Amino acid sequence: MIIPAADTIFGNEKAEALYELHMQSPGSHGFHRYQIVVVNRNGILCEWRKDMGLASRWKGVKQIRIPSFWEHSVDELMDIAEFLRNETEIDIADFLELDNYKLV
User: Fold this and answer.
1) Most CB contacts within 10 A, which of 6, 28, 69, 90?
2) What are phi and psi of 15, to 5 degrees?
3) Is residue 1 included in any domain, yes or no?
4) Cα 78 to Cα 75: distance, rounded to the nearest angstrom
5) Dihedral sign, CA of 84, 18, 9, 60?
6) How many Å apart are CA 27 and CA 65, to the nearest integer?
7) Do β-strands 64-67 and 17-24 pair in parallel, antiparallel, or remain unpaired?
8) pLDDT tens for residues 5-30?
9) Domain of 42, in residue numbers
10) Cβ atoms of residues 45 and 23 within 8 Å
11) pTM, entire model
12) Quick check: is 4 in a domain?
């Protein structure tokens, strides 16, 4: 499914959701963390994306999914994401790279 892009967002506009996910960057230049905000543009759900840099810089920080259902503004969702990013437990398995460990 192709989701249209929103090239701008406004802090006071309501949003459907905010995600911070590790995804393959365009051109296959490694995995990056992206902040994605889903907004309404003329009745169509669109995504605004911000590249937050290499996913390796976010080692141990869990990916975030915040549903809003039009209750929170973009600024409120970004504040919630910042709080969750800085105040939650470290993902120990990711930090220790246990997913890369192979049992013999």
Assistant:
1) 6
2) -130, 155
3) no
4) 5
5) positive
6) 25
7) antiparallel
8) 999 999 999 999 999 999 999 988 89
9) 17-100
10) no
11) 0.83
12) no
